[in-house]
What we know:
mainly beta, Hypothetical Protein Pfu-838710-001, 8-stranded antiparallel β-barrel
Amino acid sequence: MSSPLEIERKYLIERPSEESLASLAGAHYRDIVQTYLVGEKGEARRVRKSVYDDGRISFVETVKRRKSDLTAEELESELDEAAYEKLLLLRDQTRVPIEKRRYMIPYGTHVLEIDLYPFWARTAVLEIELASEEERCELPDFLTVLREVSAEKALKNRALARCVPDEDEVRLGKKK
């Protein structure tokens, strides 16, 4: 049995103000702590604790196997807090937990997911899930896109958990 596919494009964007994001119709956010676990070769395994703007808390385990720059097999399981705490014991000690605020904004038939990280002051990441790798999606005028970063491994959350690149270098697209 295969896992569901996640197909998404990622963009580096100018960091919008939280006030402007919160004012958009249907906008919601959640604060995420994402911890990577030791996993099998070829897979990324993580647990997430999300605290939503309505106070709700969720715990999720995710296993991803990358198929291409845009597509991954993704298997997610809801957890209770005790199972989440137990899985934290399997943390990959070479990576730190990633903290971010994710804004979810309805846009046409899609949802824009804008990740605001505490380690970058002027830059954010936009993710948008698609039905296929070939699908095109117009991005809204209220966002300033610096460039697409779907294929940039250094900007995947798993890589950021190991090493956060300098914001100026990221904005210019320079490799370390």
